[in-house]
Amino acid sequence: MGSQSDWPTMEMATKPLTELGVPFATAVVSAHRTPQRMVEFASTAHERGTQVIIAGAGGSAHLPGMIAAMTPLPVIGVPVASKFMTGMDSLLSIVQMPKGVAVATQAVGASGAYNAGLMAAQMLSLTDPELQQRLIAWREKQSAGVPFEVE
Ligand code: RP5
C-alpha cells in the first residue's frame, strides 16, 4: 500500500486470504515518497516467490500501475477512499490504464480490498486444487449464510 494510512482499508484484503489459508506479506511502498523502494519491490517480486500483488493507494494513486509496469506478476488494484474526493480520484487513477499494462481494479474502499484478497486467492487456486476446494467450500458457506426469509 502507498501509506500506513491505507492500512485500515487494506487490512480487509487479509481476511479472505487468512480464511482460505493463503500466505501473504504486507508493505508500505509509496510511488511518490519512496520511489526507489517501489522500483526495488516491484522489479524483484517475482524472484522472491510472490505470485500476485495487491496494490492499494488513494488520491493520485499511481502505485498499482507503476508496480504493474515493473513486474510480470498479476497486479490487483484497490482504490482507497481519499479525503477530498471520496475515492473517485483513486478509482480513476487506477482503472484507466493505457493499453499494454494491466491492473485488475476493484471497487473503492473496504469491499474492494476484501475482493482483492478473494481475487488473489482465486488466481492462485488455478494451480492449487486444494485451495480451489477451500474456495468452493467458502462460497457454499457464504451462500448458506444468506437467509431466504426476510426478518
Ligand atoms: C497515497 O496518498 C496513499 O496511498 C494514501 O492513500 C494517500 C495519502 O497518504 P498519507 O498522506 O495519508 O500518507 O500515496
TrEMBL record:
This is N5-carboxyaminoimidazole ribonucleotide mutase. Keywords: Isomerase, Purine biosynthesis. InterPro entries: PurE_ClassI, PurE_dom, PurE_prokaryotes. Belongs to the AIR carboxylase family. Class I subfamily. Coiled coil: none annotated. Signal peptide: none annotated. NCBIfam families: purE. Gene3D superfamilies: 3.40.50.1970. Pathway: Purine metabolism; IMP biosynthesis via de novo pathway; 5-amino-1-(5-phospho-D-ribosyl)imidazole-4-carboxylate from 5-amino-1-(5-phospho-D-ribosyl)imidazole (N5-CAIR route): step 2/2. Catalyzes the conversion of N5-carboxyaminoimidazole ribonucleotide (N5-CAIR) to 4-carboxy-5-aminoimidazole ribonucleotide (CAIR). Substrate binds at residues 3, 6, 33. GO terms for biological process: 'de novo' IMP biosynthetic process. It comes from Microbulbifer agarilyticus. Residues 1-146 form the PurE domain. Its EC number is 5.4.99.18. The gene is purE. GO terms for molecular function: 5-(carboxyamino)imidazole ribonucleotide mutase activity. PANTHER family: PHOSPHORIBOSYLAMINOIMIDAZOLE CARBOXYLASE, PHOSPHORIBOSYLAMINOIMIDAZOLE CARBOXYLASE CATALYTIC SUBUNIT. It catalyses: 5-carboxyamino-1-(5-phospho-D-ribosyl)imidazole + H(+) = 5-amino-1-(5-phospho-D-ribosyl)imidazole-4-carboxylate.
